[in-house]
Amino acid sequence: MSNQIGDASEGRPSGKGKPLNSIEHSRSKSTKTWIKKELAQQQKRFKKILQNMEDLTPKRNKWYAEFLETISTRGTNIDGDTRAVVAKQDLPKPPRRKHKVTYEAKDLKGFDH
């Protein structure tokens, strides 16, 4: 048995195993149809969520700006009444990429059902 994480067990070469999803499972036609239908519905729902998150962008940017203004003027609460003010130069710069929702519809493309 291996004594270090990532090492192969004794006598077995590492990196030679099959991928975890290589086991063949038999599915009925009705199950395959249900999975396809469910996947389509899920993608439709999450596209709507993505659009709603995109529509929130102006409000979200305003919330970020208000928060950064608050911590640079009033500060953040550390303990009881103790506050720490964050200097303007120490505030994080806004990222160049757009805000990312955890789920994206493209994540399901190529997902083998």
What is shown here, in short?
This protein is mainly alpha-helical. The protein is 39% helix and 6% strand.
Architecture blueprint of SSEs:
Blueprint: H1 29-55, H2 57-73, E1 76-79, E2 82-84
Helix percent reads 25-40%
Query: What is the number of helices?
Result: 2
Average predicted local confidence, pLDDT? 79
What is the terminal-to-terminal distance? Answer: 33 Å
Report the sheet-strand fraction.
Answer: 5-15%
Strand count, sense and barrel status of the largest sheet are:
2 strands, antiparallel
Verbal overview:
The protein has a domain at 28-92. It contains 2 helices and 2 strands. The chain has 113 residues and is mainly alpha-helical.
List descriptors.
113 residues; mainly alpha; two-stranded antiparallel sheet; 2 helices
